[in-house]
Amino acid sequence: MVCNKDLTYEEFLDQKPPLQEVIAYIDIENEWLMLGVILALTKDAIYQLPRGTIAGKPVSLLELWLKTPTASRRQLLEGLRKDPAKQDAAENFERHLNDTYEAADCKQAELDKKPGSFVSGKDIAMVEPKENQSHVPASDSEHRMKMKDYEIENLKEKESELNSEIRELRANLGANEEKLNNIVKKKDSEIETLNATIEKKESELQATILSNEEKIIEIEDKMKLSIKDKENEFNSEIEELKAFIRRKEEEIFESQEKLKMHQKISKMKDLEIENLRARLERREQDIKWGSFEVHLTSPSAEQCKDVLTRIEDKHQHVYLSDSSSSIAQLLVGPLLQIKNIRSLYIFSTPLTQQFFDFFSSQISGNDTLESLYLNHNSISDVGVTTLVQSLKPNRKLQYLSLEFNTQITSLSVPLLADLICSNCTLSVLDVSNTSIDADGVLDLVDSLKFNTKLGKLVVDQKHKAICSQFVGRLDFSYKSTTAYENFGTTKVVS
User: Fold this and answer.
1) Range of the domain at 17
2) Backbone phi and psi for residue 294, each to the nearest 5 degrees, phi listed first
3) Band of the pLDDT at 283, cuts 50, 70, 90?
4) Which keywords label this protein (predicted)?
5) Between vectors from CA 95 to CA 91 and to CA 99, what angle results, nearest 5°?
6) Is 230 within a domain?
7) Do 393 and 367 contact (CB within 8 A), yes or no?
8) Residues 272, 304 share a domain
9) How far apart are CA 217 and CA 228, in angstroms?
10) Sheet with strand 474-478: strands edge to edge
11) 413: domain CATH number?
12) How many CA atoms does the CB half-sphere of 376 hold within 13 Å?
């Protein structure tokens, strides 16, 4: 049954339902906590409910919910729909709402048909369908006029009743006014007593405050003295720390400088290592045996020992290249003790002072070695000093080559000139491709006046123009890439 109405179903849903309606149509036994979730009540609100049996809590929950501003039939229906376990309850409640809405509307329509029934203006508008108001019959208009009259009479009766109640209230107010005055007087007396008590407490509090202020001032004075002592102590510690920091900064600066120096040295060492690696990659580390010679390239200590055990009398020429001073010392000492070694070639092997100290004792009295080649950055001015001293008493060495040693400078010229003057067996001295300047070359050439046995002095081609006096006893060489590849031999231009 569908009836016309001014109150729509949506407006009906937005109204708060009566408590009995909810209790009657929703099964809430033993599910009060879930009901609180459905009604969107906060956890604090739920736990503020009075303690007691579970049966009484659902009703308390509903009463609490109905006090919220958002409580409505719609909210309750939507909450039931969201719970999968409450789908049946949601459907039953929705049917109840539809039935209630239709029944209430139809009941109002029946009341409209009875003469003398009292209905409000809003209810009358709800009863009459909106779309039919423009087509109301005349008899209905008369009926409505009568209903208006009835309504006015009822309102007058209610007004009379309200006036009677107002008179009774005024009488009661008059009776209660005296009681109220007595109560006011009593309260005034109590207020005066309280004021006196407050004044007394304020006086006591003021005295306590004054006493506390004196104590506070005393404590503040002590704290100021303590703070000043601490401040002086801290200042002293700060000065000590500053001095300590300055010392540490100086130490750090020195360490940084040392570190920079070490880093530079490390970079130089790394570069040297890379160069050595590059050279090792270019040259195969091996030992080659010829008919009359042995070639050692970057040999290990074990390989040197193996060569010393295998070398024969026919091997009169030994070549050592791209090695170290320690390996050279390990190899050369035993070799010079073998009486058949005629030539010793050492190339690209930086020799230390320790090596020359050892070598000088071996070469000074040697009577078999005829040719000694120390080429390609194997010897410096320091090494020349020791070498020359050991060769002065030597009476066998005929060929001494110091070419391609850029660390030999003009500082070695006096020693070499002395060697030329004192050694009577040396026939060739090669100092080409060194760092000896023109003046040094002239000094060496001048020393030839005192040695008629020295057949050739080999110097750089660039000095040929200044050496015309002894050009017959000189050879001039220029740097050649084949010289290194051929173990130190040079191109000589007469």
Assistant:
1) 9-135
2) -130, 130
3) very low
4) Coiled coil
5) 170
6) yes
7) no
8) no
9) 16
10) 286-289, 293-297, 317-321, 343-347, 371-375, 399-401, 428-430, 456-460, 474-478, 491-493
11) 3.80.10.10
12) 20
